[in-house]
Amino acid sequence: MKSRREFIKIGAIGSAALITQTACASEKGEDLEEILIPPVAAIKPIVLSTWNHGLDANKAAWEVLSQGGSALDAVEQGVRVTESDPTNQSVGLGGLPDRDGNVTLDACIIDHNSNCGAVAFLQYIENPISVARKVMEDTPHVLLAGVGALNFALEKGFEKTNLLTEKSKQAWENWLKDSEYEPQINSENHDTIGMIAIDESGNLSGACTTSGMAYKLHGRVGDSPIIAAGLFLDNEVGAAVATGVGEAVIRTAGSAIVVELMRHGKTPQEACEEAVARIMSKHKDLTNMQVGFIALNKNGEYGCHSVYAGFNIAVKHNDFEDMVDAQYELEW
Ligand code: ASP
């Protein structure tokens, strides 16, 4: 586990170019304020995503970003990789089902103009993020749910697929044996992919997609398709995405809070820390209440923080590609 100081060093990679520019200006005797305000987009393109599966997703996003493509295309292409991976049991195909054995998916997407689209409680579609994008682009609405979302997807040419893999079916059958059919939050069952990116033009976009909490009540929808909870972005400020117990993120409008804190001057790291503190102060019982946030500001600076140990993020830009461990408040 990296110390807080080490993490901040890594997080500050995003501001390296800004610092270099400042140093150069000072050597030349130029007015620093003029150079620094408004801030220079230090690192672009850049893509960040949640958890280890983010590494492969970032690679797909990078294919788009490195060729001058839009952040919107990048985040869609990126998270589709995770959605289509049958070995991943928390997103898309192969996701763990609800307590009745149905795989139900939630996803949302947002672009630099604050256009957004989302689907919730969607069954049988492998890539809900692309359905969310269609909701954004082809309808006057933001969020479609359930059968309506499924019918819309089929109308748009998406194929109906059985998303329950043998491995996830077995896991569910094992869970049924001693669960007494009680939905429970535990540390293993939340691993949404959330991705935020800045493209060559300096525009931000974000995507978030999940099969939600394993063995949830049929019909339960988490934070991941809810703009302002699971994902939020303001192109003038930055973007944030959440993972973990969706109910806690919804209660506190988590991602919107992170972006608003950045708007009011917090660094991405400070903003994530304050949103985590907010969640902790609003919940008396923090048992298994894991929540993690990633934030990215307009300059390409980023941060991440979680309630419990273990959250990590995948980071990719021109000079860096690796996992970064988030700092946290509690040990399990
Ligand atoms: N946030 C998701 C939900 O509550 C779970 C996750 O992060 O995997 O549905």
Commentary on this structure:
- Helix content is 35%, strand content 23%.
- The strands form two sheets. An eight-stranded mixed β-sheet has the order 4-3-2-6-5-1-11-12. A five-stranded mixed β-sheet has the order 7-8-9-10-13.
- It has helices at 4-11, 16-27, 32-36, 54-65, 71-83, 128-138, 146-155, 166-179, 246-251, 254-263, 268-282, and strands at 46-50, 105-110, 116-122, 143-145, 193-198, 204-210, 231-234, 238-244, 291-297, 302-308, 312-317, 320-325, 327-330.
- Helix 4 packs antiparallel against helix 5 and helix 5 runs antiparallel to helix 6 (128-138).
- It is of the alpha+beta class.
- The chain is globular and about 50 Å long.
- The protein contains eleven helices and 13 strands.
- The two termini are 14 Å apart.
- Aspartic acid is lined by residues 90, 190-192, 210, 212-213, 222-224, 243-246.
- The site of aspartic acid (ASP) has 14 residues, from strand 8.
Physical arrangement of strands within the biggest beta sheet: 4-3-2-6-5-1-11-12
**Backbone structural class:** alpha+beta
User: How many separate helices?
Assistant: 11
Q: Indicate the CATH architecture of the largest domain.
A: 4-Layer Sandwich
What name does the CATH topology of the largest domain carry? Glutamine Phosphoribosylpyrophosphate, subunit 1, domain 1
Distance between the termini: 14 Å
Radius of gyration (Å): 19 Å
**Largest beta-sheet details:** 8 strands, mixed
Supply the CATH superfamily name of the largest domain: (Glycosyl)asparaginase
The succession of helices and strands, N to C, reads HHHEHHEEHEHHEEEEHHHEEEEE
Oligomer: single chain
* Overall body shape: globular
Strand count: 13
Assign the CATH class of the largest domain: Alpha Beta
Low-confidence stretches are: 1-41
Number of domains: 2
Q: In what range is the share of β-strand residues?
A: 15-25%
Residues in helix, % = 25-40%
* Hetero groups: aspartic acid
**Average pLDDT over all residues:** 89
